[in-house]
Write a structure and sequence with these properties.
The chain is mostly beta strands and 196 residues long. Helices cover 3% and strands 52% of the residues.
Length: 196
């Protein structure tokens, strides 16, 4: 969600009307899971609700509802699904096609379930999601010598180095329709992640 348009201030994400990018409070990375959001509206420039002049992303989370329902997702890509744009001209310039950084694995999986606890009064919504992105890294090699027995470095071209980035999201939400115009929501989201 970090972007700006035409030099305006950075976009501010709002969930249920609460700014999710308050300076000093939001530390680290928070990934908005599409399993948890039922509607997104992007406004730019003169929204009367905004406390700044940039883009505002208003997100309405899912809250269960009066019917039991679920959603799942699965996305995958790997080296066998990857295209190559290496041509003879690049090979003539001594590019080794086997050593170019490429995709090792991309996978995103998720499952969500929601429904009524008490019809038209109390609803639940739970979801879990994991995203994994692994890229081979060109120009970096593991050390063939074992550490800490040796403080020397000898490149090991037999093993390719790769990144192992992941994000996970476990979200739970309980919604109580107190009056026809008022809702009380208890929500939690746990997001372990690593840009490794």
């Amino acid at each position: 969600t970090r972007f700006s348009l035409h030099g305006a201030p950075e976009a501010q994400p709002y969930v249920d009307g609460i700014n999710q990018q308050i300076p000093g409070i939001t530390i680290g990375v928070f990934v908005f899971s599409q399993l948890n959001i039922q509607e997104v509206t992007a406004t730019s420039g003169g929204d009367a609700e905004a406390d700044f002049g940039g883009t505002m992303l208003k997100m309405v989370p899912r809250d269960g509802g009066n019917q039991f329902s679920g959603i799942s997702q699965f996305t995958y890509s790997g080296p066998s699904l990857e295209a190559s744009n290496i041509n003879d001209s690049l090979i003539a310039r001594h590019l080794d096609p086997k050593r170019v950084g490429s995709l090792k694995k991309y996978r995103e999986t998720g499952l969500a379930l929601g429904g009524p606890i008490r019809q038209s009064k109390i609803w639940f919504y739970v979801s879990g999601r994991e995203g994994v992105n692994q890229l081979f890294v060109d120009g970096v090699q593991w050390n063939a010598l074992k550490q800490p027995a040796s403080l020397l470095y000898r490149p090991d071209p037999s093993q390719r180095v790769f990144t192992n980035d992941y994000t996970r999201d476990l979200t739970g939400r309980l919604t109580w329709q107190v009056t026809p115009k008022d809702k009380l929501v208890l929500a939690t989201s746990h997001q372990p992640n690593c840009n490794c």
